[in-house]
Amino acid sequence: MYRVAFAEGDGIGPEVVPVAVRCVREAAEGSVELFRVDVGWSAYRSRGSSLPRDSLDAISAADGLILGPLDVGSYPPGDPGSPSPSGRIRRALDLYANIRPIRSPPWSARQFDLVIVRENVEGMYADRNMHAGSGEFMPSPDVALAVRVVTRGECRRILRVGFELASSRRGGLALAHKANVLRMSDGMMVEEARSMAASYPGVRYSEALVDALAYELAVDPGRFDVIVAPNEWGDVLSNEAAGLAGSLGLAPSLNAGDSFAMAQAVHGSAPDIAGRGVANPIAMVLSAAMLLEWISSRRGDRRLLEASASIRAAVDGVLSDCDPGVLTPDLGGHGSTSSMESAICSRLARGR
Ligand code: NAD
Which of 142, 143, 174, 347 has the most CB within a 10 Å radius? Predict the structure, then answer.
């Protein structure tokens, strides 16, 4: 029995996370025990921190975490979990690889299926790139500085994930960088990528400036397989790719380390639609499926691989049906979170 923690998070989190939890419960019945931890606004209101110490301890002792989106922009300055509990969890558990697959839905005129591998523990995000203190500071009221961290070891770790993934897929790897101006930092990533490419002769390696790659992605997403990118470029490119697919509600993600992984959709807390019952749960459901597959690969347990595959097949089936009464408004339908949940779960039940 694997123990997986979950936290609903903020905004649309309490609407979409229960759908993901139900899918895991039904698909992996008898092999996964799910338990709730408190993270986000609910934790802050009841315990004075958006990431209480005991929540982090319980997460660390589990086999994985399903984490809802967090409205990090709204946390009060005095919050000990601020500014980003997800950033703290990524750092604490060394979740260095953010794997973000995205596929066009069946009705899309432009078909694509790609994965963005985003470096997740360095770069520019000031709350997580320092051992102590913050990477962003103000020497005077009118000057703000932000430090960007890039290390050779981390470049190698994230590139290894990208090359291995490309080898197991269609064999294409594109590196997004900005080494024309960030010569030492992104330059180091390019140097390591070129050297690693030599040991993966089966992978077609290419590289492009991130601005050019963003353009290419918009023009012809179908030509990409795996894209590896430093933290902030990967963050932006994955939202662009989600937009090309039609909705952030279709974009799952897994934050993975060597011994722990956290499922968390690419999207945020979507305050503009929170509480209306129209959030698309697919990104969260597919993130949870990625977590099951990851646990299965680490523990050599086929049951979770099968559970993950059955969740994906159920989601694919719902998208292929293309029933406007079921699909949420972001996908052009007039359904709801609950019509999507029913459709996915009834397919799951039929598949068993
Ligand atoms: P957002 O991703 O929450 O929303 C962007 C747009 O996409 C909105 O129009 C929203 O309605 C739509 N959208 C997002 N998810 C959807 C879904 N599942 N179904 C249908 N539509 C969906 O980005 P934002 O509004 O810029 O950020 C809101 C808050 O979330 C901010 O506090 C931000 O810091 C935080 N955030 C958190 C995470 C995370 O926890 N993983 C990621 C990104 C942003």
Answer: 174
